[in-house]
Design brief:
Helices cover about 40% and strands about 20% of the residues. It has about 325 residues and is an alpha/beta fold. α5 (about 160-180) crosses α6, α5 runs antiparallel to α10 and α10 (about 230-250) crosses α11 (about 270-285). The longest helix is centred in the last third of the chain and has 20 residues, at about 230-250. The protein starts with 6 loop residues before the first strand and ends in an 8-residue tail after the last strand.
Length: about 325
């Protein structure tokens, strides 16, 4: 087992870039993160390991120099798309990080797992991660493993997420433009201020590879209109119901009583227009929810996983897609 004070590596890779930090395995110290706005490339084999390593290696070398570390006791990499697009990462990263930094054990995690661990640590409960998309993850830290709901992307799911809210708001704007029932002139005005004449929206939106992000960019406008516009308020009420239903679906089985539940991600920065309906509907949709503030973000989650891996205290369920552990050599053979 690694020395308690050894340094561990955490990596958080997502659509907005890559963040890297070091921490003591026992949690007594943590470096400031180094961030790159260049995300890892998605290629034929999914997330391209070489492109991720191009961002990670120089950052880790800089952090290790500052910390005076020669090797690392463990590492954890959390990546958006790890569950379905992580084959190249699982094949390449263990050997590459061991060769470059002496990493003896590596956890490869879906970003939902690092979001969970950043929010709740090694405790049972439910975490909702909502930004452009929406996913919920729950575990009882037992043989039942992880329970996941939604996260299916903007075409098939992510109900209640930013892209879902933005699409519903733009649909209401177009209904007002056409004179159809269910439209919102307030949202029409916001849409035209943001995108120009709405009859040009399909041409702006459909060819874009970042279509989910463009849709989500309209979610704040829905939030700003909700206080005075019943259509916008109803969209957010529907979103709150979807979020609660998804959270309730992953509640750990066989655990009566309240369920520790954390809401994470940029969508909840919308504040009261969304949080108000969530509080109002929770007793009906997810009465067991005990809402608690998140401890921290997915980068903290990656560092927590790496620290627990180094100290032999990792209690999160392993899963081929969500949390995959690779050991290279016994940690006591490391410096």
């Amino acid at each position: 087992m690694a020395a308690p004070g050894g340094w561990v590596l955490g990596v958080d890779s997502g659509g907005s870039g890559v963040r890297v930090a070091l921490a003591r395995a026992d949690g007594t110290a943590r470096s400031a993160p180094i961030a790159s706005k260049r995300p890892a490339v998605v290629a034929d084999r999914g997330i391209d390991a070489a492109s991720l390593l191009d961002e990670v290696r120089p950052a880790v070398r800089e952090l290790m120099r500052a910390a005076g570390a020669r090797t690392l006791a463990a590492a954890a990499v959390g990546a958006a798309g790890m569950a379905t697009l992580g084959d190249d990462l699982r094949a390449v990263l263990p050997g590459a990080l061991h060769e470059a930094f002496g990493v003896p054990s590596l956890a490869l995690a879906a970003d939902a797992v690092t979001a969970y661990t950043g929010a709740l640590g090694m405790r049972p409960g439910v975490v909702v991660a909502a930004g452009t998309g929406m996913i919920a993850l729950g575990t009882g830290l037992d043989d039942s493993g992880w329970r996941r709901a939604d996260g299916w992307g903007h075409l098939l799911g992510d109900a209640g997420g930013g892209a879902w809210i933005g699409r519903a708001g733009l649909e209401a704007a177009l209904r007002a433009h056409d004179g159809r029932p269910g439209g919102s002139t307030a949202l029409l005005e916001r849409a035209e201020a943001l995108f120009g004449p709405v009859d040009g929206l399909p041409g702006q939106l459909y060819p874009r590879p970042d279509r989910p992000a463009v849709l989500a960019s309209f979610a704040p406008a829905v939030g700003r209109c909700a206080a005075a516009d019943p259509v916008a308020a109803d969209i957010l009420r529907q979103a709150a119901r979807h979020i609660l239903q998804t959270a309730a679906a992953v509640r750990p089985a066989g655990r009566p009583g309240s369920c520790r539940t954390a809401l994470t991600g940029g969508l909840f920065k919308m504040g009261e227009p969304l949080l108000g309906p969530l509080r109002e509907l929770a007793p009906e949709v997810f009465p067991e929810a005990e809402f608690v503030p998140a401890d921290g973000d997915p980068l903290l989650g990656a560092l927590r996983i790496a620290g627990a891996l180094a100290s032999g205290t990792l209690s999160l369920p392993e899963d081929p897609a969500l949390l995959h552990i690779r050991m290279h050599v016994h940690p006591h053979n490391q410096m």
